[in-house]
Amino acid sequence: MHTTTSTAHSPAHDTAAHPGANTGRFRKSMGLTALVLFGLAYMVPLAVFTTYGLVTQMTKGHLPTAYLLTLAAMLLTAYSYGRMVQAHPYSGSVYTYTRKAFGSHIGFITGWTLLLDYIFLPLLSYLLIGIYMSEYFPAIHAWVWVAGSIALVTFLNLIGIESITRVNWILVVMQLVFIIVFVALSILKLSGQAEPVSLLAPFHHEGFSAPLIMTGAAVLCLSFLGFDAVSTMAEETTNPTYRIPVAILAVSLIGGLLFLVVSYCAQMVFPDWGSFVDPDSASVDVMRRVGGELLVTAFTATYVAGCFASAMVSQASVSRVLFAMGRDGALPRAFGQLMTKKRVPATAILVVSLLSLIALVITLDTVANMISFGALFAFSAVNLAVVKHYLVDQKLRGGRNYLLYGAIPGLGFLSTLWLWSSLTSLSFTIGLCWMGMGLVVLMGLTRAFRVKLPELQMAE
């Protein structure tokens, strides 16, 4: 890979110009397995319990139905991500795709909105770690767990992506083992009940409301954030135009099926959703009913480990988006530099860790709403970018191309737009304010749109 806007020079020259950092290349060290693990760790296989109580109450006990709708929309969008990474296998994800398809201004606004999603995902993980650990160890304040987690995750990100991959193996396997145990215990619990159980009850029963389920499905999009994060690792992946699309679809499907199975079992063993002690920690009520205090302890340990894994990879992912925007000049150039030895965007990593301290003062509901707005806006933009790139810019024609680059991403756009429009007023209030801030920044960078944003042209 080289930059077409600069003359050739050696890494040593870069280092001299920017001591300890440069805007060179990432180390390509990720294969297909590492990418799938990265995506699953980001999603957190146990993420179904992050908003379990909130969305179960929101949909009046129809959580699995909401997951089915979200999974369908996410698979269509995952397809679009795969198509765009084949065209532009660089860091930056949605920001890169929309910039290439629609120009620097729209790319910046989309990237800025995406940051609302990516920046607050590690924050969400830290917040959940604080909630569950302080509940289990009440003598230790939540801020201690939050601050300690931020420090450790930041250290692991600074020493390189290889260290994160090794830790992901352990933490993802832990969650998968717990899911198997939970499903098995749920089946045993149900088989021991004297009253007959309707197998379709979690999908449709009294109180079914399509608008409420759509609203719940929109919130559930944050559970799927992970397949899109895989695309941010394109410059650190060998053969990215093949491996990234395959990994994106694999992560979407595996994660979605896990969410569906777990939510179905939870709904079957705990159908009385109106009796949760606290919606934020409703999963504890479910675990206690299925396996008693022993399962509650195992769940807390595994779930916190999953949140830790998600914090690691989400911080790595957002730092790559900040790196891409800094490299292009859309953010200060310091964001677009890499540490010479470890080849990581240290400035971006440290800034994200500082922003994550907001977890000390924010609520779970607020964070969930903020993330869902940014995610669905970005997903809609990627679906449109496929149509623009292949049918408009590349001028591909014929029935097959219209299907692959028109109909499928078009359905993806309509589904994500529909979910986006179903978000709460709080989501739109926060999201539109954030976009307004981005517009102000963009006007400053472009002198009220009189000049173009700088761009670093990349070529393989």
From TrEMBL:
The chain crosses the membrane at residues 32-54, 66-85, 106-133, 139-160, 167-188, 208-230, 242-270, 294-323, 344-364, 370-390, 402-420, 426-445. It is found in: Membrane. It is a multi-pass membrane protein. This is APC family permease. Keywords: Membrane, Transmembrane, Transmembrane helix. Residues 1-10 have a biased composition (Low complexity). Residues 1-21 are annotated as: Disordered. The keyword Glycoprotein does not apply. PANTHER family: AMINO ACID TRANSPORTER-RELATED, PUTRESCINE IMPORTER PUUP. GO terms for cellular component: membrane. The keyword Zinc-finger does not apply. Its main location: membrane. Residues 36-387 form the Amino acid permease/ SLC12A domain.
